[in-house]
């Protein structure tokens, strides 16, 4: 039996175990997916211990995504983003990936959102914002990053390169007038009826994705629907980061429908 898991603190309410175990059930894979909650000071021991014990793969979440970058061999994308959310222990050295980026890209493209040549606006420049900004720029979009703390947007835009620009939140209305894609990667709207984007800046030419998945139907997504925009909820990004992790670990196509059903049954 293969053991996969999630390392973070806290991980008690994670939706990853049912999502991944649904994939094992669907494909008849003999594996379990468990959660680990080490002390913050113990993450290096936790990664080395998982490797020594023959754990096949780990997802990594808050607060360890940046720490784990220095404990594994990161692939170039994870290195540029500065965070690892997936570790593969199958080789001689643990390899680190960032599947939040691919998750964001596939969440959008699976809804027929064109990214190559698109004008995209990303609100937020924290962990999710970094993954989304790199994903969209690598897919050929120009990316305007708006963040409450403009200095953080500045440094993300510099890391992404010429495809990205940095802005304050009060530039959103102007930025959105010409935009095709909007992603909320702030925590605004999580467990609250709030949005970081003025409703009157939304329009029917936009595809709007919210990284927030609790609640699933955020105020931003309701405002976007009211404006006639296409919407993609945060569970799609969560789903596809898990799909990409599963595919890296097993080398098999993920049973996306089974994973999606297991996830949505719990949201
Ligand atoms: P983070 O690193 O802590 O970043 C938080 C971001 O939100 C920063 O840009 C921060 O701006 C901004 N922010 C926080 N409070 C704000 C406010 N009151 N007004 C305006 N901006 C505010 O968090 P994260 O890991 O990026 O996560 C962000 C959200 O994405 C969370 O809800 C998380 O659950 C979700 N997420 C979803 C997925 C998925 O797969 N669907 C994956 C990852 C994360 P400052 O820089 O100014 O502080």
Describe the fold and architecture:
The chain has 267 residues and is of the alpha/beta class. The chain folds into 2 domains: 2-97 and 237-265, 3-Layer(aba) Sandwich (Rossmann fold); 102-232, 3-Layer(aba) Sandwich (Rossmann fold). The chain is built from 11 helices and 12 strands. A hairpin with a 6-residue loop joins strand 5 and strand 6. Helix 1 (16-27) runs antiparallel to helix 11 and helix 5 crosses helix 10 (234-250). NADP nicotinamide-adenine-dinucleotide phosphate (NAP) is lined by residues 100, 103, 124-129, 147-149, 152, 185-188, 190, 196, 211-213, 234, 237-238, 241.
Summarize this entry quickly.
The protein is α/β, with parallel strands linked by helices and 267 residues long.
Output the keywords.
18% strand, six-stranded mixed beta sheet, binds NADP nicotinamide-adenine-dinucleotide phosphate, 12 strands, 2 domains, 11 helices, Rossmann fold, globular, alpha/beta, six-stranded parallel beta sheet, 267 residues, single chain
